[in-house]
Amino acid sequence: MRPLILILLSATFAWTQPFSFGVKGGVPLTDFLSVAESGGLENPSEFVKYSSTTNRYIIGPTAELRLPFGLSIEADALYRHLNYQMSGAQANILQTSQTTAGSWEFPVLLKYRFPSKIVRPYVSGGFAFDTLSGLSQTLTETIIPSQATTTTSTGSPPELQHSTTAGFVLGGGLDIHLFLHFSPEIRYTRWGSAQFSVADLIHSNQNQAEFLLGITF
């Protein structure tokens, strides 16, 4: 009987611990990169064009430390994949490049939950930093008219300005407590600097909005 009581007490203690963890995923509401095209008016043979496809997913682990008075501290590690392409011509050289990278976003937030039983609205604010991983660019140059081609790869493309940037975060959502905690939210981040930038042709957006859903134990 005593071992059973100890097991029940241990389970109750573990369930009421203020520390929770789980997974958080969602979709970006803004594009990571803004791209454009230049040239072609005075000399149509010279131009530079960038293009990019936003990958509509963000995912990663989340952890939270619950404090008294409806407060808590949340920390996330959110991953997304990014890519962009460049094509251009200058004099007798054609250029194309393909760039890919992973972006890891690490927010640390102070949250306040409003009093309620099952559905608790909350607001959050804090800071975050974003760092790139696996950055790689493959550049192909073709000389006209000989069609001689060279291909090079680099981990530091000319568009890269900062591999790491920091910013502040604001958000709000609902904490729905059933058998788990389900937390849909909208989050806004203002980054202090652009990670990619070349004139007006390509730049990473410093204003970022996301819809996220957290599932925690």
Query: Tally of extended strands?
Result: 15
Distance between the termini: 29 Å
Which class do the helix and strand fractions yield? mainly beta
Helix content class: under 10%
Enumerate the spans where pLDDT stays under 50 for 5 or more consecutive residues: 3-15
Percentage beta strand: over 45%
Q: How is the largest sheet built, in terms of strand order?
A: 1-5-6-8-9-11-12-15
CATH class: Mainly Beta
Number of domains: 1
Sheet bearing the most strands, described?
A: 8 strands, antiparallel, barrel
Helix run count: 1
Give the C-alpha Rg: 23 Å
Q: N-to-C SSE series?
A: HEEEEEEEEEEEEEEE
Mean pLDDT: 89
Judging by the overall fold, what is the CATH architecture?
Answer: Beta Barrel
- CATH topology name, in short, is Porin
* Large-scale geometry: elongated
Keywords:
single chain; 217 residues; mainly beta; Porin; 3-stranded antiparallel β-sheet; 15 strands; 6% helix; elongated; disordered N terminus
In short:
The protein has 217 residues and is mainly β. The protein has one helix at residues 2-15; strands spanning 19-28, 33-35, 37-39, 47-52, 58-66, 71-76, 78-90, 93-113, 119-143, 148-154, 164-177, 181-191, 197-198, 202-204, 207-216.
Walk me through the structure.
- This protein has one helix at residues 2-15, and strands at residues 19-28, 33-35, 37-39, 47-52, 58-66, 71-76, 78-90, 93-113, 119-143, 148-154, 164-177, 181-191, 197-198, 202-204, 207-216.
- With 217 residues, the protein is mostly beta strands.
- It has one domain: Beta Barrel (Porin), CATH 2.40.160.
- Strand 9 (119-143) and strand 10 form a beta hairpin.
- Mean pLDDT is 89; it is low at 3-15.
